[in-house]
């Protein structure tokens, strides 16, 4: 079990040498704390993706062999998702909780969000989501050019060919609950005591890297910062879960509904008559309304973000951080456990891109 390393080391010792020795020992203890946290998430990563891959192959095998026969395609997709993700959640979450349950927890002070705070957060999250998505797409386009192939985006594939009911259940409802518990509740409860800024960045970085997908990393990191800040200020995980559900709904269900009656191949046709015919369809008009809504949210979010940053209404470590920024970086990331976790996330991201390039 972790010792209590949260006690202020600067109050210990009778002279400068004693105080230096106490602080050095305290920082070493904090580093071990973060190493334990990192190692827990390293094992969690291995179990999560290991079970997901195994169950994915197993579930597809059952359908291919005719062991499971479901004529209704929508129901078949739900069953396939359930066979793959339900065991993944049921196995990986208890593993993570078991690994971290003895690591010291510091309760987060509870508070409520105001109506104006909720509205501002919604548009800022929208701005960060779409802005981060643009950055991710630009980077992946650049990498695709270097690799000489087209690297697909799983989110786009989900929106264009995903099953409505399966996506609604697993991407919009279950995934946000699971991810917010893992990367906000569990992680922040064990790290906020060592500095709010440090913990918020760690939460967002872990969340972004865990997706093992550069298309998603940037917006996952950015909205992860917002979700972590919300939990830090309210202590209520339901707020970040709600926002997370809204983000996934906006990024999956709405595009699926919009793209349902839109023929992108005809829009990309070199025949002006074919393109003109498609532009005049109700599906294209709905698509343009959707695009205008995205632009409106993006602009409103950008304005709100600038105003919030200019007025400095967001504050972390208002009473002073227990560590300097340099100390925070050293104890948080320069340890075995966290290095293993970040390393496996980055390695998996690279391997998945290489594998996709080879298959293509």
* Unreliably modeled segments: none
Helix-and-strand structural type: mainly alpha
Ends distance = 48 Å
Largest sheet report = none
Mean pLDDT, to the nearest integer, reads 89
> What radius of gyration results from the CA coordinates?
23 Å
Query: What oligomeric assembly is this protein in?
Result: single chain
Given the structure, what is the number of helices?
Answer: 13
Helix content: over 70%
H-E order: HHHHHHHHHHHHH
Strand content: under 5%
Shape: globular
Q: What is the number of beta strands?
A: 0
Write the layout of secondary structure elements.
Blueprint: H1 16-64, H2 73-100, H3 115-147, H4 154-161, H5 164-189, H6 196-210, H7 214-234, H8 237-259, H9 264-267, H10 272-279, H11 282-311, H12 325-333, H13 336-359
Helix pairs in contact: 1-2, 1-12, 1-13, 2-5, 3-7, 3-11, 4-8, 5-6, 5-7, 5-8, 6-7, 7-8
Would you write up a description of this structure?
- The protein is mainly alpha-helical and 360 residues long.
- It has a domain at 112-359.
- The chain is 77% helix and 0% strand.
- The chain has helices at 16-64, 73-100, 115-147, 154-161, 164-189, 196-210, 214-234, 237-259, 264-267, 272-279, 282-311, 325-333, 336-359.
- Helix 5 packs across helix 7 and helix 6 (196-210) packs antiparallel against helix 7.
- The longest helix is centred in the first third of the chain and has 49 residues, at 16-64.
- The termini are far apart.
